[in-house]
Design brief:
2 domains, 4-stranded antiparallel beta sheet, alpha+beta, single chain, disordered C terminus, Dna Ligase, domain 1, Glycoprotein, Type 4 Pilin, 5 helices
């Protein structure tokens, strides 16, 4: 999984166009996968993260591929700007101060362990994103979270709490997956809008 500079620029443009579509029309930009090259038209899972002054301003994504990458980016950019329950909807005045980060996920890889210590031994800082699930509770951290939670024990505790589980929770029914991402970001002031193959707001 590796994208060219032009492909990265296209995906960032789609994200910004979709945010602008949300501000102007109240809905994500519409994209047609057939208008894009195969790497961008392929079904892939993605996350879009918005930051303002270095602080998180929204982050929404999917862990499994249900649509083309371009559609996934358009939908997740809109959702990160307007539907992240942790933040109010983005305002027009905030767009110029945003940084948009796109993360394209690899398929989830199940990880089998028999104890928390065995899981901790497998947590290599910066190497992968992780997802936990048990009894209807589910949470994930992208690989970028390692930058602020560099110790495996801290990472795991916080991931459990994000999943709605106690920090010391352990169960034989706990399901665990890991995945990698290709991530790239740009300030909105440096992202071209309505470039080649740009989505419409219809």
């Amino acid at each position: 999984m590796s994208y060219s500079a032009d492909e990265k620029s296209t995906l960032l443009s789609i994200a910004l166009d979709s945010i602008n579509s949300g501000l102007q029309h109240g809905k994500p930009a519409r994209v047609n996968a057939a208008d894009y090259p195969p790497p961008l038209a392929a079904q892939r899972a993605s996350f879009v993260t918005l930051k303002q002054g270095g602080a998180l301003r929204g982050c929404i994504g999917t862990l499994e591929a249900h649509a083309s990458l371009v559609e996934s980016i358009a939908d997740n950019a809109y959702a990160a700007a307007f539907s992240d329950p942790r933040f109010p909807a983005l305002d027009t005045s905030e767009v110029e101060d945003l940084t948009i980060e796109v993360s394209v996920l690899s398929p989830l890889v199940p990880v089998a362990v028999t104890s928390e210590q065995e899981l901790l031994d497998k947590l290599v800082p910066g190497e992968a994103g992780w997802m936990l699930q048990d009894n209807g509770n589910r949470g994930t951290f992208l690989p970028s979270v390692w930058a602020s939670l560099g110790e495996p024990a801290d990472f795991l505790r916080q991931l459990k709490m994000k999943a709605g589980l106690a920090p010391d929770y352990w169960s034989s029914t706990l399901q665990i997956w890991k995945y990698t991402t290709e991530s790239f970001a740009a300030a909105t002031t440096g992202i071209a809008v309505s470039g080649h193959g740009a989505p419409s707001a219809g």
